Amino acid sequence: MGLGKDFRLPLDARPVRYAAHLAPDLEAGTFEGRLELEMRLTKPRRELTLHALELDVEKARVRAGGKSVRAGRIEPDAESETVTLHFDEEVPAGQAVVDLAWRAKFSPGLRGLYRAGPVAVTQFEAADARRVFPCFDEPAFKARWSLQLLQIPRGAAAISNGRVAKDDPGEDGRRTIAFTETPPLSSYLIALVVGDLSASDPAMVRGVPVRTWCVPPKRHLTGFAQECASAVLPLLEDYFGQPYAYGKLDQVAVPDFEAGAMENAGAITFREVALLLDPKTAPLNVQKRVAEVITHELAHQWFGNLVTMAWWDDLWLNEAFATWMAYKIVDVWRPRWRVWMDFEVGKGAALHLDSLKSSHAIRAEVKNAQEAGESFDAITYEKGGAILRMIESYLGEERFRDGIRSYMRKHREANATADDLWGALAESSEQPILELANAWIRQVGYPLLWVGERDGKLVLRQRRFFADPEAREEGPPTRWPVPIVFRFRDEKGLHEHRELLRSETAEVSLPAKQPAWVLANAGARGFYRVSYEPRLLRALIQGLPHLSGEERLNLVSDRWALVRAGDAQVDGFLRLLEGVSRQETDHSVLDEVVSRLSFIEYRGVSDADRPALHSWIRRLFAPAGSELGWDPRDGEDDDRRLRRAAVLRALALVARDPQSVETAQERFRGLVAPQAQPVDPNLLDVVVAAAARTADPARFAELRRRAEEELDPAAKRRFLHALAMVEHPELVPEAVQLSLSDAVRMQDFPSYMGTLLGNRAARELAWSLIQERWADVRKKADSPMLLRRLVEALGALTERRHLQEVEAFLAAHPIEGARQAIAQTRERLRMDVALRERLVPEVGAFLRA
Ligand SMILES: [Zn+2]
């Protein structure tokens, strides 16, 4: 009888200190381990169960109560991912030390201890420390870790959570490296990295040495990461009112990495593209993204590492906080970047995911580590972050921060739950926020707020919003306490007014007679969508220039959601885009408009009507295109450069304007010429994509060479994905086949495949490859997160026939650990296929009118 997948360790045995040696053989891909595990037992026991997966535990003894007892039987259990040590005699309560020895292999995917190019690296969250150490692999078991690496070759770098305390060359040139003991940490935060890496010079930040590591040829790309970490670390210390706890900070760029980054205490690992960049050629969006990831991981050093969730059901406590905090701190560091606008884009994705029937609550039951893994999605990150922002906005910034500080003080080096946080916030703010917070954290979805007008008062109504026009709530309707901030304009100017909507409907009297317009989500802080009665909507559109960028972006996003849900007509929406694109100067809002147009061009128009849509879009953007041109003026600011990027994306990529496509190709030729002519970095995505679509075999070879040779990770990624955008009939099969070759690393496989599936010329062939070579495809996405991304990429398919094929395929090929991704992708695809059938005639009629 096994313990079952949902097995959790009992609480009467707790780890205090792990003293472990690991001897990796990088050539053979194997390792040996030894561990002295100091524990406290609250009652006597004959056996001890630890997590262990694919570890060959050879020897185990326990020392307790003055004697040493052998484990005569060592029983691994694959389903519960444990090993049970059956001791020959009873072990008394009190302090006990278990001695263990084991052997194992490196993991084949991107979890446990694995090889990434010239580096061996660990990735443990959520529950893969058990692939390297027998341990208490649940977040509630925090302990000190004292680690050593043995048999390390000369010249190899070695990084872990602690500082290098000893580096002993040994007699045979094989080094022993000991790291300083850590403060109490959960197992998922432990890291080891060994291999051919070099580091930037350390920066001293309030006494903490900060370094950025990468493979040696990329060392010149570490400057930005150093600058950013050095700037934000003090800002975080000041916000939390607690010093950084881990003594030193290493940021490590790993050549093949599953997630974006991992917040291991003091030894943060990243995808190369999320850490390294060349400031001369990096577009602003790449710089912002790197800064955001670095800050997110640093925020975790407090939220997650210092105070840790007790169990995975509160994973959002880690991720929502780090998400929100990253924007907050980067906004302080670089206010002119206006990163909250980017937050809006992420929030839009979360609003869409959360409008599916198959969405989930931010805080939901998690039975095991596999289910925990499924929670790393836009609900946990972006929705969670948006809810915190909404609550902060409701309580006020200072009271919110005071609550966080007291929560940090109270639970440092320990574990906490959501209710501990709400308790601290309620105390600091003297507001009853438990009910408000729990409604948003524990209920699935969010409200659509309908706003009308009667007898000079506003009439409000809420219901759960579904993206699917057919979807209805089963059971009693969900209600949210909705903190609403109205903004309105009357003859005296702009005003705000706050209301907490508690019931299904309410009437609100604004302190104004005859406002010119009323907005029901000021600053776009609320996590809900708004539908206005026609007269109010018309007034609001008249007032567009008075709204903030966030508010205009949010209005476009809400209107589009209502079109999808069948609550608004597409022609009204297209007319709104027409108006916005003509007068809009904010590049983020323009980008949102271009993204919606791109969706409609891809999915909402027949082949016959597409040329008419192209000319319509061209007419919208041509004036801005000729005003902005392709080249920045001397001293031009970022806003204008980014506006140009949005406009040229619309012209060259969405409208396929022949002249813009021709210029893009010219710029590409200049870019790759021996005497390279630089292109404004913000235009690189447009230039390379347009060149890829029109590529002939020679250009394809050039793109391939660049994808292989580029050192700058963002440039490399851009060229790699460009290969998946080709349209030339002779090149498409090659681009599709390339996905399974070594040219595409495991970490890039789902996004490369997604690009192929989103390419009208490559879609069928890519989909056939997935179906026909499923065994190879699975091996290429050998990790649960990558498999989920691959499943999600199938959402790019368009036709009813595809939907049927995907349904049949997923039914015949079950994927463990992707339950939610599969349900969400099926629902999304069903909806988008139906949406396409609805949009095609409506968009066609609009274009002919
Ligand atoms: Zn995170």
Helix/strand structural class: alpha+beta
Strand content: 15-25%
Describe the main β-sheet briefly.
Answer: 10 strands, mixed
Discrete helix count:
26
| Rg from Cα | 28 Å
The helicity comes to 40-55%
Terminal Cα separation, in Å?
71 Å
Bound molecules: zinc ion
As laid out across the biggest beta sheet, the strand order is 3-6-5-4-7-2-1-10-13-12
Low-pLDDT parts are none
Number of strands: 29
* Oligomeric nature of the chains: single chain
Give the CA-based shape. globular
Mean pLDDT: 96
Would you kindly provide a written description of the structure presented here, covering whatever features stand out?
- The protein is an alpha+beta fold.
- About 40% of the residues lie in helices and about 20% in strands.
- The protein contains 26 helices and 29 strands.
- It has a ten-stranded mixed sheet with strand order 3-6-5-4-7-2-1-10-13-12, with no helix packed on it. Strands 15, 16, 17, 18, 19 and 20 form a six-stranded mixed sheet that branches. It has a four-stranded antiparallel sheet with strand order 8-9-14-11, with no helix packed on it.
- A hairpin with a 4-residue loop joins strand 19 (about 260) and strand 20.
- Helix 1 (about 225-240) crosses helix 3 and helix 4 packs parallel to helix 11 (about 550-565).
- The radius of gyration is 28 Å and the shape is globular.
- The model has no long low-confidence stretch (mean pLDDT about 95).
- The structure holds zinc ion.
